[in-house]
Design a protein that fits this description.
28 helices, 11 strands, 618 residues, globular, two-stranded antiparallel ribbon
Length: 618
């Protein structure tokens, strides 16, 4: 059996922690050039696997491992700052959050206390989805992964030491490979399983475990170590700059940051890269990295929540400075005292930990009982805030998700053969419902065929949805095979970057040709202006005078798409351009007839869909 190397302090690992936490902070603060900053969490996983597994292995081999002592150390390290941060989140959310956003805070706090935040978030939201921006405890998912890992590993190692002596490395290698293969198999499914849950993340921690157990041979030649470390640091920088929210992650893409972090841990000592990581600045950031990770995201969420615009450079700079200052205070006055065994012996740590968990859990349960706590706001605020629920009643089951194979049967209007189809991504959903009302009033029906983030264009391939292209082909075949269908409505989130990158205008042009060849009339719903933050929140917190997207900006951003309008009209396409209905003195509007036109920042509410369709020719 190979035993982990003796423990000694390595300043370069604290420096690597800085390399992990700063990209996360800058990514969340919307600093340009850090679109892949989320890979910092993967670096943390490797570091954690190396350090903590090494401790467990050494103590088991020495025969003095105690699960109780192990978790006492984890409690000292994790709980004080975590509980303080959660208390802050509960108080701040009570003061700031509107009812619809407030209801999720207390349950997420309970999940974070029980280190199940990753499981809760998997069932509720997605890391890159809009509602993540109103989830101040979103970042605690990684603590859930780590602590679940450290429930499993000590038990695994104890069992191996007792019943399968000599198989520890083989078992860890098998688990690492199995976890990685699972992550790759799940990487294209954006249900959140691969991102949030331990089975597909464990390989990243096990990568550090394998280093701690001496599996990787030492690099004997200084020149080779220098090259490997420089390349590893370069790989981390490249991933931070080149990855973004559209990168299929984790899975294969996570190999780069994980292997780079492992390489730096393995060979940095004695190299120029190791000296760079051991400088006072990186080491200082590394020392406060846990508190910096804990506090930065809630600060960003609450700061951004109160704005009526996107984060500016000055906002981002202020948030970064504030996050570092609070992280230092948290490290100095919360973390450090509780790590002092003379000041807080084991019995006291358990009492304080148990008491802190009980108080925070009780507060969370009380807030869950309050629900949205609407009594905090006046009637007009509540009216505007409620627009976040003004969406299609069939949105949940008439939008094919990205892991389903077939479109559900979803026909709106009268119980008769459909006369039309609305085909699109999630931007088509509310339009479909309103069209269903119109068709139903005439005794007719319309089919809804919608799939999230899947443009209604033959030949469009989504990097994150391998079934999108097949879905579109099936819809086109269904349209061809349904002779009663006379009109096809096309609607999508045309303004988004992946559609532009895929040349969606060219693919849509060919799709229109295909539909015309079938004898179908085509109605195109143009781009919907994207607002800086969700419109119901803008109106509820800032009133009708809140800042909205300038019309000229939106027209410029979508010119690559709208330049085709003259040609499509000449070919018989009816175009409904929302900007014709959303422009008021140079700014886009978010409210009409006293009704919010969006239920978030870019999806129309039912009121908004009715406003758009008011432009339909009679």
């Amino acid at each position: 059996m190979t035993t982990a190397a003796p423990h000694s302090y390595r300043p370069d690992i604290d420096g690597l922690r800085a390399i992990a936490v700063l990209p996360v902070l800058l990514y969340h603060a919307n600093v340009p050039g850090f679109s892949g900053g989320f890979i910092g969490v993967d670096v943390f996983f490797v570091i954690s696997g190396f350090l903590i597994t090494g401790i467990i292995a050494r103590e088991i081999d020495a025969g003095d491992f105690s699960i109780l002592t192990f978790y006492e150390r984890r409690a000292r390290r994790i709980l004080p700052a975590l509980l303080a941060m959660i208390a802050f989140v509960l108080i701040a959310a009570s003061l700031l959050f509107l009812p619809g956003d407030f209801t999720g805070v207390a349950p997420s706090a309970l999940a974070a206390i029980g280190f199940l935040a990753n499981v809760w978030l998997f069932t509720e939201t997605g890391y890159f989805q809009g509602d993540a921006e109103t989830t101040p405890l979103l970042h605690t998912w990684s603590l859930g992964v780590e602590e679940q890992f450290y429930i499993m590993v000590p038990i695994l190692f104890i069992l191996i030491a007792r019943y399968a002596h000599g198989w520890r490395i083989k078992a860890v290698l098998a688990l690492t490979l199995g976890s990685f293969v699972w992550a790759v198999l799940k990487q294209a499914d954006v249900d959140g399983f691969a991102f949030y849950l331990l089975p597909t993340r464990a390989w990243e921690l096990f990568a550090g475990s394998l280093l701690a157990m001496g599996v990787v041979p030492a690099i004997k030649h200084r020149a080779v170590a220098e090259i490997v470390c420089a390349a590893a640091l370069g790989a981390l920088v490249a991933a931070t700059m080149l990855y973004d929210r559209h990168t299929v992650f984790p899975g294969v893409a996570a190999l780069a940051p994980v292997l780079a972090a492992a390489a730096l841990i393995h060979c940095a000592p004695g190299t120029w890269t190791g000296r760079l990581l051991s400088l006072k600045g990186p080491v200082w950031i590394g020392l406060i990295s846990y508190s910096l990770y804990l506090w930065h995201w809630p600060l960003i969420v609450f700061w951004r929540y109160t704005l009526d615009e996107k984060l500016t450079f000055y906002h981002s700079a202020g948030l970064i400075i504030l996050s570092i200052a609070i992280a230092w205070a948290s490290w100095r006055f919360i973390e450090q005292p509780f790590r002092n065994k003379a000041r807080f012996p084991a019995a006291r740590i358990w009492r304080w930990s148990g008491g802190g968990i009980a108080i925070t859990a009780a507060a969370s349960l009380a807030l869950i009982w309050q629900g949205g706590w609407q009594s905090r706001f006046d009637a007009e605020t509540l009216k505007f805030a409620s627009a976040s629920a003004d969406h299609s009643p069939v949105r949940d089951y008439c939008v094919v998700d990205r892991i389903a194979d077939h479109s559900p049967e979803c026909t709106l209007g009268a119980s008769t053969q459909p006369k039309a189809v609305i085909w699109g991504d999630s931007h088509a959903v509310e339009i479909a419902w309103v069209l269903g009302e119109d068709y139903g009033a005439q005794g007719e029906a319309i089919m809804q065929r919608t799939r999230g983030s899947c443009a209604p264009a033959i030949g469009y391939h989504s990097a994150k949805d391998e079934r999108c292209a097949a879905f579109n082909t099936a819809v086109l075949q269904e349209i061809s095979a349904t002779p009663t269908v006379q009109t096809v409505y096309l609607a999508g989130y045309w303004a988004q970057a992946p559609y532009f990158a895929a040349g969606i205008d060219r693919l849509l042009d060919q799709t229109i040709t295909d539909l015309h060849a079938m004898g179908k009339d085509v109605v195109l719903i143009g781009p919907i202006p994207t607002q800086p933050v969700p419109a119901p929140r803008l109106l509820a917190l800032h009133g009708r005078g809140a800042s909205t997207l300038p019309t000229a900006d939106f027209i410029g951003e979508t010119a690559w798409f709208t330049r085709h309008y003259p040609d499509w009209r000449a070919r018989g396409v009816t175009i409904i351009d929302p900007i014709d209905r959303f422009n008021d003195n140079g700014r886009t509007i978010i409210v009409a007839a006293d009704q919010p036109l969006y239920y978030d920042e870019h999806h129309l509410s039912l009121s908004g869909a009715r406003h758009v369709l008011g432009a339909l020719p009679q």
